[in-house]
Design a protein that fits this description.
Blueprint (H helix, E strand, L loop, with lengths): L6 E5 L3 H11 L4 E5 L2 H8 L7 E5 L7 H9 L9 E6 L3 H9 L4 E5 L3 H53 L10 H18 L3 E8 L2 H8 L1 H18 L6 E6 L2 E7 L3 H18 L14 E8 L7 H17 L5 E3 L1
Parallel strand pairs: 1-2, 1-3, 3-4, 4-5, 9-10
Antiparallel strand pairs: 6-8, 6-9, 7-8
The structure holds magnesium ion.
Magnesium ion (MG) binds next to loops.
């Protein structure tokens, strides 16, 4: 594989100098020559421009400094490294050349080793600088890409989290979400010593409903009940969730027994009003729910599990006492 050779522009008004430098560098680089400032500029603006310029200072008409200024004034040529060629021991010229932006200087008569070493060094620097810029640009666009991917990820995560907390059949919060919510509200009520209410509820005679109407109708009934209950729980701070099977649960933060009774009866009435036909219920010709409710101010001896157990106990009592009712503690 042949590697592309770097192009070097050599500018000198003396043919002898041009020949010496060209012979020295020709085996390693593509050499372009210019005999005066005007040619030098013309060739510097070629496409592609040279990778490096060796520029004689002392030239008639346009000297090296003027050429240098023109190069530095144009964005196309500004970054091409320029090495000045100066007469031996001309410290003042060297200094001026460096201040104009030359990267280095070499002195006449030429030492082949020095010329080669400096040319190599500055081409190497130019290439690493170029690569660094390329990498930097890539990094910038990667970062932009990453930022946009990240916000997509945040959005996806949010949706995933929402999905993980929603019951697939009914679309209302699921058991997992309920557990999380209850624990959080338990802690808050314990800390603030505010009342916390919980209602556990169950569709009456749901097994005969399923047995007689089939599972598709059963699922439909669950969806309607979930919809009706969740529409009836209007306070932002409350949570209605599917507890499992035909059981639902409602958490009411900062709610005492009066509030609990009000919400419970409202839920029961809403289900009755929905009037889902149930010819196989023993309490009504439509779907009804039984409910067990507990209102407490949490203390350290209790737990969310105890709260659920108590509500379950009262739910059992509601079933025993004829269903379609709310029993509270
Ligand atoms: Mg000269």
């Amino acid at each position: 594989m042949s590697e592309k050779r770097d192009a070097i522009l050599i500018v000198d008004d003396e043919r002898f100098n041009l020949t010496v430098l060209k012979d020295l560098l020709d085996p390693f680089y593509d050499i372009i020559v210019a005999k005066n400032g005007e040619q030098a500029l013309k060739r510097s603006f070629a496409n592609p421009p040279p990778e490096l310029i060796l520029l004689d200072i002392m030239m008639p008409e346009m000297d090296g400094y003027q050429v240098m200024q023109r190069l530095k004034n144009d964005a196309v040529t500004r970054d091409i490294p320029v090495i000045f060629i100066t007469a031996m021991g001309d410290a003042a010229n060297e200094e001026k050349g460096l201040s104009l932006g030359a990267v280095d200087y070499i002195t006449k008569p030429f030492s082949p080793a020095v010329v080669l070493a400096r040319v190599r060094t500055h081409l190497g620097l130019r290439h690493s600088l170029h690569n660094e810029r390329l990498l930097n640009n890539q990094l910038v666009s990667l970062n932009e890409d990453l930022a946009s991917k990240n916000s997509q990820l945040v959005e996806l995560n949010k949706r995933l989290k929402d999905l993980a907390s929603v019951d697939g059949l009914t679309g209302i919060p699921n058991r997992r979400r309920f557990d999380e919510f209850l624990l959080q509200e338990w802690k808050r009520a314990l800390r603030d010593q505010t009342p916390l209410s919980l209602i556990l509820m169950d569709i009456d005679f749901f097994k005969p409903f399923n047995d007689n109407y089939g599972h598709a109708e059963g699922d439909d009934c669950l969806k309607k009940v979930a919809q009706t209950l969740s529409a009836a729980v209007t306070r932002e701070s409350d949570l209605l969730a599917r507890y499992g099977g035909e059981e639902f649960v409602c958490v009411l933060p900062e709610t005492d027994i009066c509030g609990l009774n009000r919400v419970g009866n409202h839920l029961r009435d809403a289900i009755i009003a929905r009037n889902i036909v149930h010819a196989h219920s023993k309490v009504a010709p439509h779907v009804t729910i039984s409910m067990g409710g507990v209102a407490i101010i949490p203390d350290r001896t209790g737990s969310p599990e105890n709260l659920i157990q108590s509500a379950d106990k009262f739910l059992y009592k509601a079933k025993e006492q004829g269903r379609n009712r709310l029993i509270v503690e």
